[in-house]
Amino acid sequence: xxxxxxxxxxxxxxxxxxxxxxxxxxxxxxxxxxxxxxxxxxxxxxxxxxxxxxxxxxxxxxxxxxxxxxxxxxxxxxxxxxxxxxxxxxxxxxxxxxxxxxxxxxxxxxxxxxxxxxxxxxx
Length: 123
Prior knowledge:
Blueprint: E1 4-7, E2 10-12, E3 18-24, E4 33-39, E5 46-51, E6 57-59, E7 67-72, E8 77-82, E9 91-98, E10 111-113, E11 117-121
Parallel strand pairs: 2-11
Antiparallel strand pairs: 1-3, 3-8, 4-5, 4-9, 5-6, 7-8, 9-10, 9-11
């Protein structure tokens, strides 16, 4: 059973930076995409960024040019470097490992979620 544990959240001023990390307790099958989602109060959970095992990345338009996702396959970790943070980036950030859209494989769970880490951008 894979467990995802996030770290690195906190309080930062607008324009500042934070780095989130996510470690998987077990081995993530290579087919899984890893990524970050966020949920602000009163809003639905939304995609922030994803990365495949091969390094292909995808970002929400709102974070392009400010956030960078990276993945270490050997260590089963994924990180999110967040620069030029804005108050609207305030949310709980969740680490995710998931099968690609439309893919279902017997014996593999569709996705895994971490418990979330709070990021607050405020002066």
